[in-house]
Amino acid sequence: MAEPRSWQAETALLGNADPSDPTGWFEPLWASAKDGAVTMPWDRDDPHPALAAWPNSPDLGTASGTAVVVGCGLGADAEHLSLLGYETTAFDISPAAIAAARARNPGSAVTYAVGNLLDLPRDWISAFDLVVEIFTVQAVNRRVRGGLTAGVRSLVAPGGILLAIQAIAEKGDDDGPPWPLTQPEIEAFGTDGLSAVSIEGLPDYASPSPLGLWRAEFRRS
Ligand SMILES: C[S@@+](CC[C@H](N)C(=O)[O-])C[C@H]1O[C@@H](n2cnc3c(N)ncnc32)[C@H](O)[C@@H]1O
Residue 209 has what pLDDT? Predict the structure, then answer.
């Protein structure tokens, strides 16, 4: 069998910057990875280090309430939240990604589901005590940024927390993917009833941006 092609190179062929279908490239990419034609994208078994080191994280097994992971890919962050104690849902727009997440985590307590941030099921709105969003918004071109950000916000329950981890951009441009977030773009999570608890710039974490990562926490009153 031929060596898998690099998924990073594949994204351009799939039209990753096509503004008329900004999320259309994810499913063919994940499906090609599942078939072994390209390497597995966003492949990690451990929680993102900026999530694992989140200072306000509950200790292992002590969390209560519901959590959701947006654009969950292979599920490492969702498995982490489940081990903390959250009743965890994790969704991705790509059915192939969700199939790969289920295959990678047999016996998991996480509910994996296909879902689109731009067209969320009604019963997920305001349903989660913790919402974790890592690298989904930045993976989609700016044409739908406002809708994706609003979708993330809408998942947070009254009194709930949103944790967003995204690469930092000094100014917004169209040169992606990814399309890292400017300061106003990360602050935009803190509207419509949410307010910022902290917005940190973490220069030392591995990031697609030389400026590092935002780790931003918001709370709904
Ligand atoms: C850059 S990857 C990050 C994956 C994972 N969060 C991680 O950090 O490894 C972005 C993920 O978001 C998913 N995605 C893109 N647009 C989405 C949407 N509108 N709704 C839900 N998931 C989406 C993609 O299929 C992909 O798995």
Answer: 92
Residue ranges per structural domain of the chain: 43-220
Is the pTM higher than 0.90? The answer reads yes
* Closest approach atom of ligand 1 to CA 177: 1
Question: Is 150 exposed, middle or buried (CB count within 10 Å of its CB: 0-12, 13-18, 19+)?
Answer: middle
pLDDT tens digits, one per residue of 12-32: 888 777 778 899 999 999 999
132 burial via Cβ count (<10 Å: 0-12, 13-18, 19+):
buried
Whether 134 lines ligand 1, by a CB cut-off of 6 Å, is yes
**Ligand 1, atom 27, residue with closest C-alpha:** 73
Fold classification of 43-220 (topology level): Rossmann fold (3.40.50)
Residue bearing the CA closest to ligand 1, atom 16: 23
In testing the pocket of ligand 1, which one of 8, 68, 117, 136 has its CB within 8 Å of the most ligand atoms? 136
180 DSSP 8-state letter:
P
